[in-house]
Amino acid sequence: MPDPTLITVMAGASLLGVVSGALGCFAVLKRQSLLGDALAHAALPGVCLAYLLGGGIGVDPKHPLLLLGGALGTAWVGTLVLQSVTRTTRIRQDAALGVVLSVFFGAGIVLLTLLQHGSAGASQAGLDKFLFGQAASLVPRDVLLMAVLGAILLLALAVFFRPFQLIVFDPVYAGSQGIPVRRLEVLLTTLIVVAVVVGLQTVGVVLMAAMVVTPAAAARQWTDRLLTMLVLAAVIGALAGASGTWVSSLARRVPTGPLIVLSATALLGGSLLLAPRRGLAWAAVRRLRNRRRVRVENLLKDLWRLGERDGRYAAPRAVSDVLAVRAAPRIAVDHARGAGLVHVAGPLVQLTGTGLERAARVVRNHRIWELYLTRRLDIAADHVHRDAEDMEHALDDEVIEAIDAALGRPKVDPHGQPIPRGVPA
Amino acid sequence: MSDTWVILLTGAAAAVACALPGTFLVLRRMSLLGDAISHAVLPGIVIAFLLTNSVSSLPVVLGAGTVGLFTVFLIETLRRTRRIKEDASIAVVFPALFALGVLLIAQYAEHKDLDQDCILYGEIAFAPLDTIEIGGWEVAQPLLTLGIVACLNLLFVVVLHKELELATFDAALAATLGISPVVVHYLLMGVVSLTTVASFDSVGAILVVAFLIVPAAAAHLLTDRLPVMLALAALIGVSCSTAGYFLARALDASIAGSMATAMGGAFLLVWLFAPREGIFGRLIRRRRTRASFAQALILSRLDRAPAAMDDVAADLAWPRRRVREVVDTLQRNGLIARNGPLLLPTRAGLAFVQAVVS
User: In which domain, by residue range, is A10 found?
Assistant: First the structure.
């Protein structure tokens, strides 16, 4: 039976991952990834002020709702300052974010140390945990609050999904359709503020930026559809929250917040490498395959051209002679043999039946393309070879057939060399 | 030297050291790279500390500074894969490195000098205690390091002012003149890394962002000239760090936090009162433009044919009161004359219209 405290913390961390992941998608797509960071910092003085205020009016100063309210308050003020600075001055968004983030945080630190040095110690009050987060301090009451707020946020997201989608991708069009763009942007920012504030206790001010951005950036790799991205980001966020908590429970002195962030980062790394289509690993594989194919096809072409000299296309040739044509690496021969395109016997290499076919096709592509460039695009005959060297590997049969027909099925290329159509007997 | 002076000078050195590269960060719209670097150097600092037991000596600063350059490189590499936009790649990279640093600190918690709080806001109050002996003189190490870094940064902007200016304002022209924008970029980022590491122990990873960005942003609202902006940013930084120290003394609160708060106050003042870019300046200018436009409008109406006040109000579709206000001003300034109920422009009035129209 797992530890109930661990379950509580895991639940809280996963909830946070779901909410910040889903809302983070909008921040990432609007290229405002660091908004969450600035807002998290701007929330700090609010937490301290709420604590002071609560003590002053005789309310439990540590009540999570009170602290949350304070955090929301100053984060909101931070947003307003941010927007009015960028709107009324020449200062750009990046510097405005930096100003809001550092000044609000500085004020928060002043308040925090003020409380620490005052009668009621702030470390005793547990306000420290908002700096680095203290997931272990989550109790069922906190998680319940997170769940309720999270549900409200997700509900709002579901209700306003369509208009949000519009203002993210095409605010001008949205405006022309009578959608209140500015008001919706304010609402969206408010939702992000709430999500950020909800996460402060778990991962802290500094690392909150990652909770907003990293799952969304990871989800983006897997899909081009917003709804799918939202769901995936929520799942990735939850996964990061749960796994980070779990790993940190395995060893002593391993804080939870950083581990949640690091596991989110690991999930992003995996997504960057392995996501279908966009994955960097697949892109590398594709590049490698492409290079190999070009090498093999060039080898076949060189064999074919040696054959053109004496009319014996399938005759064995010395490997060194073939490779010498373009200083090709030996590995090209091995790849071609692996694909069943050539036979290799000792120092000799010769085209197989399929090899002959492929070679004829590549040479045909090359020469038809040269002819097309000279005849239809009026490019000089001595300028077309380089381009044909690339295109011969890229053109597919359908296009070549169409060009061939359009040119009237010519017999020779601009240099007077025959255009092969099919394999010689 | 008394402790107060050591703290004040250390704060001033940090302010100057940060304001100089910070100005270029603001102008190049790369403020957030400064934010990212200041957080991401944490693992470098922790490792350097574990190796040498100090966070303020110059070799440590140089070593940990390379982590900052690595961060910039990582962000750039991620962006260049075109899988993640630049803002997101910043927001992904620096928390990960920062988290790594926090994890390292938690692992070596027995080192009391390097606790979590000092990461966030440093402890400039301890600057006078961390001394080394040079030629029989007791010198506060943070002050020495920050002083050297401030001088290096000054040297950097003075020696490379042409390159920095060109690469900042016209990267294409810089490239044609043989100044590589990439080299300038990485040099600047190297300077930012060095500076954040050097300031780390006094003001912490987050408040150094205030030192970098806030004075530069305020200076940006006060001038269009680069050398003036650099000087103003340094001046604002130094005065705010000094004011912040006394604020902290009065409140018994964090010194670095108070310095950042003072910078916020200075920014607010500039934002409100800057002659051209400030909120009030803009309001006043807008009111003036409106007034002179209204006057020109009425004068040009009267230039076509003299008319009574009511006719003017009807023609312009303005409330009568507004017309009277403007007419009163015009009459006071001698731009309009009365002939019974009719108003007509004077010679000076016609010249005024000409001036506004052209």
Answer: 4-275
